[in-house]
């Protein structure tokens, strides 16, 4: 498994972070949690898209959310920090026999779009990795039209300190950049501070009924064997209430767990 270049170079180097995600692009395109996860459909149900609307897939990665939304809106635009992720998103769209959507490399804290460009924003499994959630929320409000809706779907804190400490430690092992986990209520506060109206939230949700394979997650993330071993030990050594809350089950050398996912929705009023 590869060394983590972003961690090695320091968290303040955006080029190293971008390179780290570039390196993961192909493996992320095959990660079941991203490509087949059930929250794609829940996000769409909650956004209630209309056929003449335009949707921004923010932090699109390999484009699973965009492909799910493409049949429900007039136009989908992808934006991601990683050019390689966007190239893979184009490949996956062609593989699914879909039109390749417009793709733009950009930072969530400084979106390269005009004010009021979109009716909808969907951000799935990316927000916890953004450098500044506050800037991201402000940019989402700026690019949304009046009455536009946003749904943020991600691993979210549960509000149980012991569970959240283990969850954050696990995410930090798997991520090439700093991770920030907030509860849905805290996400609502951030969105409202940016001038959006929080409408609803769903938690806890699960991407796959079968849960997450720790070995598969480590392989997709490209972390070292020692880091994978540390993640395994972290889960096995957690207090029983934490293991129960995360649905931790040992399967030989692998561990299966259920990472808590939440969705928060807001409107520009």
Count of domain modules: 1
Write down the overall geometry. globular
Proportion in helices: 40-55%
- DSSP strand (E) fraction? 15-25%
Going by helix content, strand content and strand pairing, the class is alpha/beta
Mean pLDDT: 94
**Rg over CA atoms:** 18 Å
Give the strand order, joined by hyphens, for the main sheet.
3-2-1-4-5-10-6
Number of helices: 12
Which regions have little confidence, pLDDT < 50, spanning 5+ residues?
A: 1-11
Number of strands: 10
Return the string of H and E elements.
Answer: HHHHEHEHEEHEHHEEHHHEEE
By CATH reckoning, the class would read Alpha Beta
Architecture per CATH nomenclature, i.e. the level-2 architecture: 3-Layer(aba) Sandwich
Intertermini distance: 47 Å
Biggest sheet features: 7 strands, mixed
The CATH superfamily is known as Vaccinia Virus protein VP39
Give a brief outline of the structure.
With 269 residues, the protein is of the alpha/beta class.
Characterization of the model:
- The protein is α/β, with parallel strands linked by helices and 269 residues long.
- It has a single domain, classed as 3-Layer(aba) Sandwich (Rossmann fold), CATH 3.40.50.150.
- Helix content is 42%, strand content 22%.
- The chain contains twelve helices and ten strands.
- A seven-stranded mixed β-sheet has the order 3-2-1-4-5-10-6, sandwiched between helices. A three-stranded antiparallel β-sheet has the order 7-9-8.
- A hairpin with a 2-residue loop joins strand 8 and strand 9.
- Helix 2 packs parallel to helix 6 and helix 8 runs antiparallel to helix 11.
- The protein is globular.
- The N and C termini lie far apart (47 Å).
- The N terminus is likely disordered.
């Amino acid at each position: 498994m590869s060394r983590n270049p972003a961690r090695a170079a320091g968290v303040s180097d955006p080029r190293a972070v971008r390179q780290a995600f570039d390196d993961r692009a192909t493996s992320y395109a095959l990660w079941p949690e991203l490509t087949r996860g059930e929250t794609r459909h829940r996000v769409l149900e909650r956004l209630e898209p209309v056929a003449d609307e335009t949707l921004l897939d923010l932090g699109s990665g390999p484009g699973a959310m965009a492909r799910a939304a493409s049949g429900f809106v007039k136009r989908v635009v992808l934006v991601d920090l990683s050019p390689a992720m966007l190239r893979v998103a184009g490949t996956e769209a062609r593989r699914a026999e879909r039109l390749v959507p417009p793709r733009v490399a950009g930072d969530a804290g400084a979106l390269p779009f005009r004010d009021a460009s979109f009716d909808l924003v969907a951000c799935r499994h990316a927000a916890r990795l953004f450098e500044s959630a506050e800037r991201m929320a402000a940019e989402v409000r700026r690019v949304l039209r009046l009455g536009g809706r946003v749904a943020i779907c991600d691993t979210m804190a549960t509000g149980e300190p012991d569970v959240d400490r283990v969850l954050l430690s696990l995410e930090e092992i798997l991520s090439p950049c700093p991770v920030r986990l907030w509860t849905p209520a805290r996400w609502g506060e951030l969105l409202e501070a940016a001038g959006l109206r929080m409408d609803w939230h769903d938690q806890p949700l699960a991407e796959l009924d079968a849960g997450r394979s720790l070995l598969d997650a480590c392989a997709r993330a490209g972390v070292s064997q020692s880091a994978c071993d540390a993640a395994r030990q972290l889960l096995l050594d957690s207090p029983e209430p934490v293991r129960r809350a995360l649905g931790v089950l040992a399967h030989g050398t692998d561990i299966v767990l259920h990472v808590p996912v939440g969705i928060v929705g807001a409107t520009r009023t």
